[in-house]
């Protein structure tokens, strides 16, 4: 909503507005010092300072979290760099807060000098990080811009700052003198921070012109606010005056804007892109399916004609065609028939993908029995027996579950050895994750398990055209597709000559009827 409102303004207007808005409090304090340049009492100031600093530390750690934890997916090196820099900034700001002269000793005695030393280190660090980050793009190549080196540098800087200002105070540059105030060094350091921020602003501006990326406005606005904040810290006379308070508030706002920009770059934008890709992918998938459906339908007609005319030629011109010619015509007819089978399987395969109707509660046993009824003729021809054990009720697509059983039981009957086919359909043990298994077991010819991957791919067969087992190699591919549409998986165990067991694993779904593994009705 806020973004939409601001989205209507140009970047220049937004930045000019930011400048005007954030310069106003300063102008007022300068114009009306008597009324506005107040001093806080030490108690109120400590309460304010701790609250403000904890806020900005929290935001800094959020910046770190976004940059660091999204990196594995987003691979956004700019966000990773700023994120790890902000980890150090947040931690040093934490030390700054604990070192406040009005707080209990932070390991060694506190003083305004110690507190401002941590402060100015954090500011130099964040301003330098801003400046350097202007040259780092999300896809920058340098090997230093990866998690390990950046985290090492961040921890090393934080550790060195902590040890230096906590244990080696006397060797460190003095930034504040008790009873006197800030030293010139502290002021020059703040000016240096301002120069770094101005440079960062200029380079980010150039980057925005180059890339057209409007989220950079967040950074630019943050730098303007940071510059005002630094100006306040370069000008305060005591640690408790209005400038100091305004500076702290500005810092929180600036950090929030950085967080917002990183969040948009590392989380929101990739998410929006992913949604767009998914929609496009779904559309092109659908187009492809429609195409294969229509193409396979339209190919049937010319094939039918080839077969019909080959047959006609054979019967009407029999006398005039040599035996070899008749043989050729037969081969032609057979090939056309096989191609017709392949095409209709292709239709079946693409058709099995179109629109999965809503899942309903179904009795799997009923589905299996319906599939067996459809295979009655094959079963009788093969003199096979199919036994169905207890199967659960699940939430699934009825038509597709029936097709799944049909394909598996059909294969179990078809790939029989010398023995009469005996097929068992039963529910397997419940898996530790709650998913259920359905087994379709046969006593057929089996296969070598090294071909397991192959058999679930479309048109992959382990039996050539010369084998007695007819087929096109589409049945198991359809089974896999059906199972995957139900968020499950399919595999098999088998041994040549000893039979196979196909195992369908379905995720934990609503089950109306609990079934004991292997139970038979
Ligand atoms: P098709 O049966 O039309 O060849 P499928 O996709 O159903 O196609 O099966 C792929 C291949 O897997 C088959 O060609 C066969 O070699 C092997 N196969 C499938 N089911 C069994 C089974 N129950 N026993 C042995 N082999 C099987």
The unreliable regions are none
Structural class: alpha+beta
Radius of gyration: 37 Å
Order of strands in the sheet with the most strands?
4-6-7-9-8
The 3D shape can be described as elongated
User: What average pLDDT do the residues reach?
Assistant: 86
The span between the termini is: 60 Å
How much helical structure, as a percent, in the residues? 55-70%
By DSSP (H or I, 4+ residues per run), the number of helices equals 17
How much of the sequence is in beta strands? Answer: 5-15%
Q: Number of DSSP strands?
A: 9
Largest β sheet strand count, sense and barrel closure: 5 strands, mixed
Descriptive tags:
alpha+beta; single chain; 521 residues; 9 strands; two-stranded antiparallel sheet; five-stranded mixed sheet; binds adenosine-5'-diphosphate
Overview of this protein structure:
- With 521 residues, the protein is of the alpha+beta class.
- Helices cover 63% and strands 8% of the residues.
- It has 17 helices and nine strands.
- The chain has helices at residues 2-7, 11-31, 33-36, 42-69, 71-74, 77-98, 112-133, 147-167, 184-211, 216-235, 242-316, 323-351, 364-374, 376-382, 398-414, 452-455, 475-485; strands at residues 176-177, 181-182, 360-363, 385-388, 393-396, 422-427, 436-441, 489-495, 499-506.
- Strands 4-6-7-9-8 form a five-stranded mixed sheet, with helices on one face.
- Strand 8 (489-495) and strand 9 form a beta hairpin.
- The longest helix is centred in the middle third of the chain and has 75 residues, at 242-316.
- 36% of the residues are buried.
- Adenosine-5'-diphosphate is lined by residues 407, 411-412, 415, 442, 444-447, 455, 461-463, 471-477, 500.
């Amino acid at each position: 909503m806020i973004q939409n409102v601001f989205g209507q303004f140009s970047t220049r207007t937004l930045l000019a507005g930011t400048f005007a808005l954030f310069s106003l409090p300063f102008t007022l304090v300068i114009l009306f010092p008597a009324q506005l340049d107040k001093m806080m009492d030490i108690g109120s100031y400590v309460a304010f300072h701790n609250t403000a600093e904890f806020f900005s530390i929290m935001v800094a750690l959020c910046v770190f979290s976004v940059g660091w934890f999204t990196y594995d997916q987003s691979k956004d090196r700019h966000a990773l760099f700023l994120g790890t820099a902000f980890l150090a900034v947040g931690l040093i700001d934490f030390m700054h807060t604990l070192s406040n002269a009005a707080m209990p000793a932070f390991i060694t005695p506190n003083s305004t000098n110690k507190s401002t030393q941590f402060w100015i280190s954090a500011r130099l660090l964040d301003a330098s990080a801003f400046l350097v980050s202007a040259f780092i793009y999300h896809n920058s190549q340098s090997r230093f811009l990866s998690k390990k080196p950046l985290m090492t540098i961040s921890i090393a800087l934080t550790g060195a700052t902590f040890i230096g200002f906590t244990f080696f105070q006397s060797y460190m540059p003095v930034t504040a003198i008790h009873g006197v105030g800030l030293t010139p060094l502290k002021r020059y350091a703040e000016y240096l921070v301002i120069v770094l921020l101005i440079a960062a602003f200029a380079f980010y501006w150039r980057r925005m012109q180059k890339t057209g990326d409007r989220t950079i406005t967040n950074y630019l606005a943050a730098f303007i606010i940071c510059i005002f904040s630094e100006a306040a810290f370069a000008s305060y006379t005591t640690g408790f005056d209005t400038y100091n308070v305004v500076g702290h508030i500005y810092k929180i706002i600036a950090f929030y804007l950085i967080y917002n920009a990183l969040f948009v770059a590392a989380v929101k934008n990739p998410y929006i892109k992913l949604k767009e890709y998914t929609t496009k992918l779904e559309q092109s998938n659908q187009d492809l399916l429609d195409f294969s459906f229509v193409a396979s339908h339209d190919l049937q007609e010319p094939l039918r004609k080839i077969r019909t005319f080959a047959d006609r030629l054979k019967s009407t011109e029999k006398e005039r065609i040599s035996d070899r010619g008749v043989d050729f015509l037969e081969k032609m007819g057979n090939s056309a028939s096989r191609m017709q089978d392949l095409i209709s399987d292709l239709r079946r395969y693409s058709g099995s993908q179109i629109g999965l109707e809503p899942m309903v509660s179904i009795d799997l046993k009923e589905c299996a029995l319906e599939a067996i009824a459809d295979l009655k003729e094959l079963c009788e021809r093969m003199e096979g027996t199919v036994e169905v054990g207890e199967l659960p009720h699940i939430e699934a697509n009825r038509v597709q579950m029936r097709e799944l059983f049909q394909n598996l039981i059909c294969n179990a009957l078809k790939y029989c050895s010398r023995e009469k086919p005996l097929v068992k359909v039963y529910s397997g043990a419940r898996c530790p994750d709650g998913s259920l298994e359905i087994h379709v077991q046969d006593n057929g010819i089996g296969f070598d398990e090294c071909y397991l991957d192959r058999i679930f791919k479309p048109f992959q067969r382990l039996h050539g055209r010369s084998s007695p087992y007819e087929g096109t190699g589409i049945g198991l591919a359809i089974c896999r597709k059906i199972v995957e549409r139900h968020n499950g998986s399919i595999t098999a165990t088998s041994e040549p000559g000893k039979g196979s067991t196909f195992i369908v694993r379905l995720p934990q779904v609503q089950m109306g009827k609990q079934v004991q593994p292997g139970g038979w009705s």
